[in-house]
Amino acid sequence: MGPKQEIAGFEGCSLPSALEVMGERWSFLILRAAVNGIVHFEDFQSTLGIARNILSNRLVKLVEHGILSREPVAEDKRKVAYRLTCKGRELLPAMVALRQWGEKWGSGVPCRPILVDKRDHLPVRPIAILGADGRELDLDDMCWVEPVEIGNSSEGKEHACKGSASG
C-alpha cells in the first residue's frame, strides 16, 4: 500500500477538526492565559499583546467550540469572564507537550516559569505516549489498526498494521 492510499484510510480522523479549533498560535496563547487564571477580555489583551479584533474572533471561536465558557460577572454586568470548560482543560496535555517540544527544539532552554507539581514543587515529566501497560512508546512502537483489531496482538505480523506510525 502506497503512502497516498494509507493516508486515504484515515477518513474520519479527528486531527483536522481539532486543528480547525486550536490550530493557530493565538488560540493556544489564549488557552495558556486561561490556564493561568486570566478571565477578562482586557487582561487577555494586555497580557498577550493581541489586537482587539483578533482576540474577539478567537474568543468567540473558542466559546463556540466549547473550549471556554462566557459568563457575565456578577459584580459588574458589563464585564464577561471567559473560563475553561472541561473540554478546554483537557487540552492542557497538548499545550504542555507543545511547550516542552519548543523548549527542546525551538529555544533549546527551559522556559520560565517552570511548570511544577503543586505537591512537591518538582517539574512535571515530559509528556509521553504510553502503552496500555504504561511503558513509554516511540514512533516505531506504534501502528494504525481498525477498531475491530484492537486487542488482537499481532506481534511479528506487520500486515495487521496500516503502516507504522512513522510511515
Spell out the key features of this protein.
167 residues; mainly alpha; two-stranded antiparallel sheet; globular
Quick summary:
This protein has helices at residues 3-8, 15-22, 25-35, 41-48, 52-64, 86-89, 92-107; strands at 68-73, 76-84. By secondary structure, it is mainly alpha-helical. β1 (68-73) and β2 (76-84) form a beta hairpin.
Give the helix/strand layout.
Layout: H1 3-8, H2 15-22, H3 25-35, H4 41-48, H5 52-64, E1 68-73, E2 76-84, H6 86-89, H7 92-107
Antiparallel strand pairs: 1-2
Give a verbal description of the structure:
- With 167 residues, the protein is mainly alpha-helical.
- 40% of the residues lie in helices and 9% in strands.
- The protein is built from 7 helices and 2 strands, in the order αααααββαα.
- It has helices spanning 3-8, 15-22, 25-35, 41-48, 52-64, 86-89, 92-107; strands at 68-73, 76-84.
- Strands 1-2 form a two-stranded antiparallel sheet.
- Strand 1 (68-73) and strand 2 (76-84) form a beta hairpin.
- The longest helix is centred in the middle third of the chain and has 16 residues, at 92-107.
- It is globular and about 60 Å long.
- It starts with a helix and ends in a 60-residue tail after the last helix.
- The mean pLDDT is 87.
